[in-house]
Design goal:
The chain is α/β, with parallel strands linked by helices and 213 residues long. 48% of the residues lie in helices and 15% in strands. The protein is built from nine helices and eight strands. A hairpin with a 5-residue loop joins strand 5 and strand 6. The structure holds BIS(adenosine)-5'-pentaphosphate. The site of BIS(adenosine)-5'-pentaphosphate has 34 residues, from helix 1, helix 2, helix 3, helix 6 and strand 6.
């Protein structure tokens, strides 16, 4: 199963992708996570990407396309994968189609998680992430048992650098301008499924499963 999760920042792509990964035992490929790891490692990629990520801009297409091309050819992707945060532009979507075509493969389903801007802002402003294992929490919907400490590994929780109001608004603008047109792109290909991403995480997961089964 080859899936794409589309949706604005804070739509719940990462949350749902992790649940799909556990259910179907296929990798979750998050370009955001790959880039954040590169920033943490102070790798050349991370130093370049940070300049864009910190201000809510997209990292240049050639950088992320190269990453994904390499990743989806790895052995653990043979039975499928879940793309979370990629593609983000029409160019990225076209290059993905070309690469899959060369591999004799296609995207089966594109799930668009639809949610309004107010909900996005409240989700992102309340999010905290574990600095060690990447576990995700929310001050209201998914609070940690002890403030500032990850339930899973005991690591320190922190707010993401790009989860401040100014950068969230910028990310939403960038989404509307560059990523929302992908809905039309995949609609034309006949594999777009829209899911209302309001409600509990579990309710949304049931809706997503209906779309991918
Ligand atoms: P990325 O990491 O992909 O961030 P994003 O798309 O902005 O998405 P988020 O991770 O913020 O949100 P999400 O939809 O995954 O929601 P989540 O499940 O975390 O990208 C970051 C940056 O990297 C980009 O700005 C760009 O610079 C760069 N980048 C990445 N990919 C790129 C690409 N392809 N091309 C170019 N640049 C790229 O949930 C959010 C919060 O809500 C959490 O606290 C969660 O607990 C909570 N929550 C989830 N579901 C619910 C629910 N149902 N109810 C209540 N709370 C909920």
């Amino acid at each position: 199963m080859r899936l794409i999760l589309l949706g604005p920042p804070g739509a719940g792509k990462g949350t749902q992708a992790k649940m799909l990964k556990d259910k179907f035992c296929i990798p979750q490929i998050s370009t955001g996570d790959i880039l954040r790891q590169a920033v943490k490692d102070n790798a050349e990629l991370g130093i370049k990407a940070k300049l864009f990520m910190d201000v809510g801009q997209l990292v240049p297409d050639d950088v992320v396309i190269g990453l994904i091309k390499e990743r989806i050819k790895q052995a653990d992707c043979e039975a499928g994968f879940i793309l979370d945060g990629f593609p983000r532009t029409i160019v990225q979507a076209e290059k993905l189609s070309e690469t899959l075509d060369e591999m004799g493969s296609v995207i089966d389903t594109v799930v668009d998680l639809e949610v309004d801007a107010d909900e996005v802002i409240s989700r992102l402003a309340g999010r905290s992430t574990c600095q060690d294992c990447g576990g995700m929490f929310h001050e209201e919907s998914c609070p940690p048992k002890a403030a500032g400490i990850c339930d899973s590994c005991g690591g320190t929780l922190a707010q993401r650098q790009d989860d401040n109001t100014e950068t969230i608004l910028k990310r939403l603008d960038v989404y509307q301008e560059s990523t929302a047109p992908l809905k039309q792109f995949y609609k034309k290909q006949g594999n777009l499924k829209t899911v209302t991403a309001r409600g509990s995480v579990e309710e949304i997961f049931s809706r997503v499963l209906e779309m991918v089964k």
